[in-house]
Design goal:
single chain; about 240 residues; alpha+beta; Ribosomal Protein L9, domain 1; four-stranded mixed sheet
């Protein structure tokens, strides 16, 4: 089975791999496609290692100097805040997400030489807000800076609230007082109910119930009076 790695002697400094004079083990494809064509590495031998000793010593001094500078820089970066103004819609959603290059350029403008690959973004930054950004220069050189993403224009506060929908999929319009507005259909239904109530005629009050025998009609009293009068006249004659 063919080997998948290859040992090479670095003839130049290679980021994230080593400095000149280092003997490193690399993947075969990386060696053939990158290191060897660019003459950044070669087959190691004792003679070549010895010939690179002076160049290696100089590289080690440079590495130590860079390390010292980066230690000082990482200390100064602690607590640094970055502000980026980006175009967005009325809800504060950016038209394009914030990239590592955006943050690298922003830090460079502040005097911090940080490469894009040294910035760690733990989430997609695609809306107006504040974020913690992890900067890692080496395994033991890291810090956190604060990013503030702002709109490049004025946006009303209530326009930035998240959109909400009712059970029927209608957009819930929020008033200036904040969240919790009513849907368009609900408002229309309430207005229709109010209009019906105003248009309906007033109902007559229910008739009062009287318990007991209903009174006789006026005409019913006349026959009874006549009978009594006739009876009284008969008694007098007899």
């Amino acid at each position: 089975m063919a080997t998948k790695t290859l040992k090479l002697l670095l003839t130049e400094n290679v980021d994230n791999l080593g400095i000149v004079g280092d003997v490193v083990s690399v993947r075969l494809g990386f060696a053939r496609n990158y290191l060897l064509p660019r003459e950044l590495a070669t087959t190691p031998s004792e003679e070549l290692i010895a010939s690179l000793a002076a160049k290696r010593a100089e590289a080690q001094k440079q590495v130590a100097l860079v390390r010292k500078q980066r230690e000082a820089m990482i200390g100064k970066m602690t607590g640094v805040e970055i502000t980026l103004e980006k175009p967005c819609n009325d809800q504060g959603i950016l038209y394009g997400s914030i990239s590592q290059n955006d943050l690298s350029e922003a830090l460079k403008k502040l005097g911090y030489e940080v490469r894009a690959r040294e910035i760690r973004i733990g989430q997609t930054i695609k809306r107006i807000d504040s974020y913690d950004i992890h900067v890692k220069l080496a395994s033991d050189l890291e810090t956190v800076v604060r990013l503030h993403v702002k709109a490049d224009r004025h946006i009303e506060d209530d326009a930035r609230d998240e959109m909400e929908f009712d059970n029927e999929g209608e957009l819930i319009e929020k008033g200036r007082g904040g969240r919790g507005g009513r849907g368009r259909k609900q408002e229309a239904a309430e207005s229709a109910d109010a209009a019906k109530a105003e248009a309906a005629p007033a109902e007559a009050p229910p008739a009062k119930k009287v318990w007991g025998k209903a009174p006789s009609a006026p005409g019913d009293l006349a026959p009874a009076a006549e009978k009594a009068e006739k009876k009284a006249k008969k008694s007098k004659k007899s």
